[in-house]
Predict the 3D structure of the following.
Amino acid sequence: MNKLLTIILIIILSFTLVGCNNSNDSKTKLEPIVATSNITSTDDTISLDIKITDEDSTLISAKAVLYKDDIIVDEVLLLEESNDISFDSLLFDSAYMIVVEVKCDLLDEFGVQDLRIVPKYISTLEEGYGRVADYNILFIGNSFTFYNDMPTMVMDIGLSNDLDIRVEQISYGGYSLSDYIEDGSDDLQEVIDKLGEREWDYVILQEHSSKPYYDKEEFLSSVDTLSQIIKDNGAEVILFSTWSYRDGSSKLSSTGLTYTEFYNALTSAYEEAAELSNTSIAPVGTAFYNLTMEQPEINLLVSDDFHPRVEGSYVTAYIFYTQIFGEENNNEYTPSGLSNETLIILREYAVEALNLS
């Protein structure tokens, strides 16, 4: 009988307090500053390429640390911009985690801070690498997608309900959908290559946080173009309708709109894009809006006033799971740090947003 072996690779990026890259919402491919590729595995070895992009600061040190059950079992010093590394003599009876720690120097200041988590999942059968899950979901977006490892929450909800879901993502900080379709660009080629890797069931598209408002025409065009590429590869497209910046924040003030006005502008643009491209919408922004207005004690955003806390990412994942697979859910998956009372409220508002859409 085939034995399913799952390796969970989580890349935790660390950078200086002033940052190897401290841009928040501007287009940059320095976020992530660590990229992994060519991940392969055998019965007892995992190999991968690690590339460190370090254009705006001086790299001091970097290492890849292998954990098993929260215990360090091996580490490799990364000396070059591009590194081919492998860990061997592994026993695949539980999840492994690879943490890539990067320290850099900028303006003579130095410190360490966890930035985010980026997952890479490999599933293998005894006969070799390359398992295709029952459901395959690809996310294309930016930090609103990769914060708190939201796509993996969708997978974990599925696993708790005995659904075999594979999730992957193409997400770079500050990116717009238009960045993924520039003619001749590496980003377009990455999308095309990823779409050709397997038979995707769903592809989730998430636009830059304010693009649907300040450049709606380009947003609509980008959705239409990407949706056609995706549909030509046989997958269904879902638009990730995002949320307003925190009410009263300088981030929101920069738009010139009120909290409700910005939410309405985003929602209206996504609805128009869905109609033009014949796609569906995941009404995440609606859930955020209703929770903010009716349950203000639940904080959905981190201190920068626009990226999601775990609460925000969980309600997002719950909407995607419920929209795709229905409301039958045993709710056994619960992110750490959230009370049962909060989880119940988040689930209720996720379902409500779907019923309203």
Notes: Residues 1-32, 106-131 have pLDDT under 50 and may be disordered.
